[in-house]
Amino acid sequence: MTAMHEHPAPVASAPGKSTPAWRLLATLGVGGALAGALVADVYHRTLPAIERAADARIGGAVREVLGAPARLDTLYLVGDKLSRTPPAGTELRKVAKVFEGFDDSGTRIGVAVESAAPGFADEVRLMVGFNPTTGALTGYAMLGQKETPGLGDKIEKDTAFIARFRGKLTPVKGTKNSTTDPSTALA
Q1: pLDDT value at residue 40
Q2: Does the residue 157 lie in any domain?
């Protein structure tokens, strides 16, 4: 006798209701608006701390390149002239500045300016100090760079490399050469 195996007939599923497209779009819109509002709120709450950190970095860099002056004065670039007063109606963070350093007796010991130039990966931002009387560099400090670790970050981390610029006369121009000693490019 042969046993017959039977399967029950499939049960037809009841058609389900699908969510209307407008409801999906509304949910996405509300979620996106809330996320955007949260990002904006965090940005506005943290902006003062970020700006204070940037100001501290600039102040520290100025003191580093000028050898810890007793007094600092800030000059503002207005048109093509320097002014001791900032231009009216402008945001001070966006105005080009020159920092003058003075010793205890009031003698100007140097000037520091922010400089930026394209690097390989991104812009390289430096604070450059120099003696305006002699034109000699007093040093530079890194404000920002995203160069390749171990290769391009030498401008920030290699103290021997950094020290080679002290005393060089401005303008300093870096060049590539075929020698294996990169210091010869600073002649």
Answers
A1: 94
A2: yes
